[in-house]
Design brief:
26% of the residues lie in helices and 21% in strands. It is of the alpha+beta class. It comes from Cephalotrichum gorgonifer.
Length: 117
């Protein structure tokens, strides 16, 4: 049993035109397609930047995973963005992860978002 009656809208074309909203694509901040590397998002649509804690909690490293393409170019840009030296940002040759000394997860996540990833 329904307590309130159904609401019926008029079927006039003028009303229907005023109710329709054109679909517009949301422009991306920047296109990452012209970069020599690609950082793919995870299945849950997150940027794959993680912290690894070792040596009893005193050694922290930040990992950028899911990197495809020119990892060395990404390494160089991360060095420049964080203002770090040569040995502080390296590429693991086995896994392909970019490894950064220290805890830089929020900075790198925001930096990658601004790059369009």
């Amino acid at each position: 049993m329904r307590l309130t009656p159904f609401l019926r809208l008029a079927q006039s074309p003028a009303l229907l035109e005023s109710l329709t909203i054109p679909a517009q694509a949301v422009p991306a901040a920047k296109s990452a397609s012209n970069l020599p590397y690609l950082v793919s998002r995870t299945k849950s649509n997150r940027i794959p930047v993680y912290i690894r804690i070792g040596a009893g909690g005193s050694k922290k490293t930040t990992l950028i995973q899911r990197v495809e393409g020119d990892r060395m170019a990404l390494r160089d840009e991360v060095r420049e963005a964080l203002g770090m030296g040569g040995a502080d940002v390296v590429v693991n040759p086995t896994t392909g992860h970019v490894v950064v000394k220290g805890s830089h997860v929020p900075k790198l996540t925001e930096w990658l978002k601004n790059k369009g990833f």
